[in-house]
Amino acid sequence: MNFRYVLLVLLSFIVPAFVEAKQPNVIIFLVDDLGWADISLRGAPIDTPAINSLFSEGLTLDRFYATPICSPTRAALMTGRDPLRLGISYSVVMPWMNNGVHPDEHFMPESFKAAGYQTAMVGKWHLGHSQEIFHPNARGFDDFYGHMHTEVGYFPPFANQGGIDFQRNGVTVSDEGYETFLLANEATRWIEARDKEKPFFLYMPFIAPHSPLEAPDDLVKKYADLEDKRELTRSVSIDRTRKLNGFSPSARPIYAAVVDGLDQAIGQVLNTLAAEGIEEETLILFSSDNGGAAYAGGGADNFPLRGGKGDTYEGGIRVIAAMKWKGKIDANSNFSSIMTVMDVFPTLASASDVPMLNTKEIWGRDMWPAIRDSKDIKLSKEVYFASETPNYGEFHTTVFNDKWKLVQVITSSLLEVNVENQLFDINTDPNEYKNLATKYPKLVEMMANQIREWRALHPISGIRAQLVPPPGWRAPKDWTSYTIPIDELQEDASLGFGVHAHQILDYLIKDHGRIIYDCKPGDWERGKCKAPEKPKGHQH
User: Fold this and answer.
1) Over the stretch 126-135, which tens digit does the pLDDT of each residue have?
2) Which helix (H) or strand (E) holds 181?
3) Which residue among 350, 373, 396 closes a domain?
4) How many Å apart are CA 427 and CA 435, to the nearest integer?
5) Is this model's pTM higher than 0.85 or not?
6) Is residue 460 situated within a structural domain?
7) pLDDT tens across 225-244, in order?
8) Counting Cβ atoms within 10 Å, is residue 123 exposed (0-12), middle (13-18) or buried (19+)?
9) How far apart are CA 103 and CA 138, in angstroms?
C-alpha cells in the first residue's frame, strides 16, 4: 500500500481532533465562610453530595490559600494581584465606604470576554458599590444577577442596612424565594439560554453559608437536633466568642441547613451541565473565600486546622477547594503544592488558552502545567496575608514559604502595642501546635522584616477596619439608586492634595504605607508617582 496514502488516511482522523478542540467553559463556585471540615466527605453530619462529587470526580487542592476575609479574596481572584497593593487587604468593603478596586485594574472576565467568551456573574460582588465603575458590568461581565453587598439575608426583601440589594444589570429585581435557590435558577436559565457556539465564563460567588443564617423550613427541621460537637479552634479571638453559646443556642444546626441548601444549588448547576451535554467541556473551580466562620454566630468547623475566618492561622487561610474537568483532570486525585487565590486567574487563563491582558504586575502563578501533569511545584516567592477584622484593635498577619510560616498577632490599645510572634514548621506541623519562635529568633526577625516591608506597600487610602458607619449615615432604600453613573464622574482618578503635599507626607510616613495607590518606596524621588496611564485597549 502506498505510504503517502496511509499517511493521509491517518491524518484524516487525527487533524479533526485538533480542529474541533474547543476552549472550555469555565465555572467558579466561590462559597462564603465554608469550613474545612464541613462536607460529608470529610466527616461532617451535613448532606453535601454535589460538593463531594467535585472532589471525588476531580482534583482536591490540598493546600489552597485564600485571604482571611471576604473582599480581599475576591479582589485577588479577579485580578491575580496582591490585594494589599490594591488597598483592599485589611478589611472588607462596608456599605458606608466609598472604596472599591481601582478602576485601572484589569479583571479576569475582561480577558475572557476579549477572547470571545460569554461572561456572567451570579451572586455576591462585595468589591465596591458606590460608583458604576466599580460594578461587575464595568469589569467584564455581560450579565450580573445578585447583590453588591454581603449580609442581605436569604429571604425577601434581600436588604442590606435596610436597603434593597438585589439586581440584574443595575435594575432592582423583586424575585421571591430562597436566595441560594434563586441564584441556582438564574445560573441554570443563563446556561440554557447561552449562545451555544461560544464558550462561557460563569462566576458564582454564593452568600451561603455566611451569616445571617437562614434556611427553608424543611432544612431547618432536618438539622434541628444536630449537636454542636466542634472542638476549640485554639484561637483566642475566636474561642472567646464561643462563650456566647452559653447565652444563645448554637449556630451549628442552622449553619448545617444553609450548607445543605448550598449543596442543592450547586447540584442543580451541575445537573444543568449534564442535561446540556457539556460536562466534558467545562472546567470547574470550587473554593471557599476564607476559612470557616468558626465563632459563636458562624457555626463552621475547620478542625483539625487552627483558627478560622479573620485569623492568619491555617484555619483562616487554608480553604477547602477542588477542580474538575472531566476527561482532562484525573478523578479522585490530589494536588499537594501550595496554590493561592492569586493563582486562579493565570491558571484558568492558561487552561482555557485565553491571553491575559493585564498591564500590571501579577502576583499569581500559572499552575495549570503542574496540575495537568500532576507535578509538584515550589513557591517562587513568599506569600503574605493580613486581616484587621473582625476584631477591632487586633491585627493578624503572616508570611510563609514552602517550609516556614510566621504568624503575627498584633494587639493595640491607646498606649501600647503588643506583637506576638508564632513560628511554625508548616510541613511537619500543619495544624500549628508547636510555636518555634524562641528556638529560631534570627528566622523570626528576618520574616518579621519581610512582613514590615510588605505592609509598607499598602496605600494610605486603602481600606481599614471600619465596623460601624459614620455618625448619621443612612443607607438608601434601594442600593441601585446609590450608585454614581460613570458619565457623571471625572475622566481621571483623583490624586487628592497636590504633589508637594504628597511628597511631604510620604517622607514623613515612610514605612507606614504608601500615599498613592500603586506606588513603591522611593517612587516619589524617581518621579513615578503620578496619575496612572489608562491601559491600551482597555475600556470600562
Assistant:
1) 999 999 999 9
2) helix 179-193
3) 373
4) 13
5) yes
6) no
7) 999 999 999 998 899 888 77
8) buried
9) 9
